[in-house]
Write a structure and sequence with these properties.
Length: 241
């Protein structure tokens, strides 16, 4: 059973417990602890996990609002049981119809999806995983084409091409790409896409600091990478290379 299904079972159990309360108000310690624990579980584990599984944002927003209602009710001195029952029932229905059923309808998860599920507690979302793929593609593609064209991108060669010294701790793909770009122009008169400062910074933020890029930032990375791959493909297959 997946963690999502386990959480859904916990929601059903919580609703059943609350539904058995016959008085109109409830302020028991057990209820409050259960409600707060459920809310915190949603915020710290389940919501980040669902983002990695590409559940629609409107569904996540709806559920987040409902869980907020339950959390706020639990923190009142006296909670309205009828209201709480209604909200829990609504949460169960939405979670079943828009999450559980949707995930079951999808094809079996790829190993990478299971990997992201395991890392959900880190708060990394699909924008991060797509950005990482794009960034690694840039590096692998440039490295392979550089080997094919005889362009050496080790530190000594890069310093010679750029005509400046680079501290070992600062040496990065950004320097290699700059050198690669100069050599492609010098040797083959090929203009490579410009790696603007924003995209240079994004590499460090995403790969080394776990930054979740905004959708537009992720789209910029993907767009640049697609353009780079097209350029490399067209030039590396040309006779002059």
């Amino acid at each position: 059973m997946s963690r999502v299904e386990m959480f859904y079972d916990e929601l059903k159990s919580f609703y059943s417990e609350t539904a058995r309360i016959r008085t109109r108000t409830v302020s028991t310690r057990e209820f409050k602890e259960k409600a707060i624990a459920t809310y915190e579980n949603w915020k710290t584990e389940i919501q980040p996990l669902l983002k990695t599984l590409r559940i629609e944002n409107v569904t996540l927003t709806t559920l987040d609002c409902l869980f907020e209602n339950i959390y706020n009710e639990a923190n009142k001195r006296v909670g309205d049981t009828a209201y709480t029952k209604a909200k829990l029932s609504q949460i169960n229905n939405v979670f079943l119809e828009r999450v559980v059923v949707k995930l079951k309808e999808n094809k079996p998860l790829e190993p990478t999806a299971n990997l992201m599920e395991s890392a959900a507690f880190l708060g990394l979302d699909t924008n991060w995983s797509v950005a990482v793929c794009a960034l690694q593609l840039q590096e692998v593609a440039v490295t392979l084409v550089a080997e094919k064209t005889g362009i050496n991108l080790d530190k000594t060669s890069v310093e010679k091409i750029l005509d400046r010294q680079i501290q070992p701790k600062d040496f990065s793909f950004n320097h290699q790409y700059e050198a690669f770009t100069k050599e492609m122009k010098r040797l083959f008169d090929v203009d490579m896409p410009i790696l603007v400062p924003q995209l240079r910074r994004m590499r460090v933020n995403v790969l080394h600091e776990g930054y979740n890029p905004e959708p537009e930032e992720k789209d910029s990375l993907v767009s640049f990478t697609s353009g780079l791959l097209k350029k490399l493909n067209s030039t590396s297959s040309a006779e002059k290379l």
